[in-house]
């Protein structure tokens, strides 16, 4: 019976099951299809079946919209403080620390200057992973600063909105950001510089009631939830059933609240065409100003078709 006493460690180690990562396959909430993660990334996080747009973070949006290597972040170290000593189940200060660890962000928006097809733009990208993209003092201040810089230096603004609204832990301080960002956009408009708002799922509350609806052009991704108060609150207030698709992008476009619905794969080119319409062609440099980039991203010479002297 010596064979019975032999160690089986070698056998057990060789037969161990390979570890399967939990995030290799993702279920679409729209059609319940199970999709390979790499395929989703290739499709910019859009379901190949029902075309539902998954929520993505601020880093992915910047990669989709901006020319590679052109983004220069502003006010990266700015963080929120617990001015009101707010506490519910836990203190606001503790929540800030918790969300900074979870999201890897200092607050719910990333702001800076980048380029879309070589055109310099101010850009703000809100991130729902940080306290539901809520707008507090830091969010309002960062957005205002980049708008003011765009006003001074003469370039257009793009804001990608994703927010649950004003941050209740900051009380009236968060509500003040609605007026502050709106005032900054008014100064931008006085300089005849365009502002394009991109609404993603969700865009609600104080964000919708301020800068999200002030764009010269308001774009939405398909199926995005856009509104001020929640559907349940509205239904209970007016005591009526709400129409099908209420507060979704398609409903809002039908009723004239947004200008167009753009698939994520076409968002960058759509922004480029709109900015070209407002700002004209991109000059490559100040010396050889006859060269420019047209709305389709092609290099052109504005003098090439003119008749030449013999």
CA-CA gap between termini:
107 Å
At the fourth level of CATH, the homologous superfamily of the largest domain is 2-enoyl-CoA Hydratase, Chain A, domain 1
Largest sheet: 7 strands, mixed
Give the overall form.
globular
Oligomer: single chain
The first-level CATH class name of the largest domain: Alpha Beta
Structural class: alpha/beta
Domain count: 2
Radius of gyration: 24 Å
Strand content range: 15-25%
| CATH topology value of the largest domain | 2-enoyl-CoA Hydratase, Chain A, domain 1
Low-confidence stretches: 8-20, 286-290, 303-310
What is the share of helical residues?
Answer: 25-40%
What is the count of DSSP helices, taking H or I runs of 4+ residues? 11
What's the helix-strand series?
A: HHEEHHEHEEHEHEHEHHEHEEE
Using DSSP, what is the number of strands? 12
Q: Whole-number average pLDDT?
A: 89
Q: In a nutshell, what does this entry contain?
A:
This protein has 310 residues and is α/β, with parallel strands linked by helices. It has helices at 2-5, 9-14, 37-42, 58-65, 92-103, 137-153, 172-190, 205-208, 231-238, 249-254, 267-279; strands at 25-27, 34-36, 72-74, 109-116, 119-126, 157-163, 195-203, 217-220, 260-261, 282-283, 291-293, 299-301.
Layout of helices and strands:
Blueprint: H1 2-5, H2 9-14, E1 25-27, E2 34-36, H3 37-42, H4 58-65, E3 72-74, H5 92-103, E4 109-116, E5 119-126, H6 137-153, E6 157-163, H7 172-190, E7 195-203, H8 205-208, E8 217-220, H9 231-238, H10 249-254, E9 260-261, H11 267-279, E10 282-283, E11 291-293, E12 299-301
Parallel strand pairs: 5-6, 6-7, 7-8, 8-9
Antiparallel strand pairs: 1-2, 3-4, 4-5, 10-11, 11-12
Helix pairs in contact: 6-7
């Amino acid at each position: 019976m010596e064979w019975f006493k032999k160690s089986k460690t070698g056998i057990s180690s060789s037969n161990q099951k390979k570890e399967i990562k939990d995030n290799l396959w993702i279920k679409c909430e729209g059609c319940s299809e199970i999709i390979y993660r790499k395929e989703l990334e290739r499709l910019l996080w859009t379901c190949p079946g029902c075309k539902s747009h998954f929520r993505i973070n601020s880093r992915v949006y910047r990669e989709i919209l901006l020319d590679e290597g052109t983004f220069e972040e502003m006010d990266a170290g700015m963080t929120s403080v617990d001015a009101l000593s707010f506490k519910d189940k836990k203190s606001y200060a503790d929540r800030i620390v918790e969300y900074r660890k979870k999201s890897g962000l200092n607050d719910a928006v990333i702001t800076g200057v980048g380029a879309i097809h070589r055109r310099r733009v101010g850009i703000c990208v809100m991130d729902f992973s940080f306290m539901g993209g809520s707008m507090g003092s830091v969010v309002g201040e960062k957005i205002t600063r980049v708008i003011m810089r765009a006003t001074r230096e003469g370039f257009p603004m793009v804001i990608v909105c994703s927010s649950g609204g004003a941050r209740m832990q900051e009380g009236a301080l968060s509500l003040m950001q609605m007026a502050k960002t709106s005032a900054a956009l008014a100064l931008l408009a006085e300089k005849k510089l365009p502002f394009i708002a991109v609404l993603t799922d969700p865009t609600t509350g104080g964000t919708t009631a301020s800068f999200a609806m002030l764009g010269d052009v308001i774009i939405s991704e398909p199926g995005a939830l856009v509104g001020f108060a929640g559907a349940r609150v509205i239904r209970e207030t007016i005591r009526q059933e709400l129409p099908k698709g209420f507060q979704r992008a398609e409903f809002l476009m039908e009723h004239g609240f947004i200008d167009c619905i753009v698939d994520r794969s076409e968002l960058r080119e759509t922004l480029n065409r709109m900015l070209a319409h407002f700002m004209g062609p991109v000059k490559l440099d100040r010396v050889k100003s006859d060269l420019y980039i047209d709305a389709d991203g092609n290099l052109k010479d504005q003098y090439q078709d003119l008749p030449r002297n013999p």
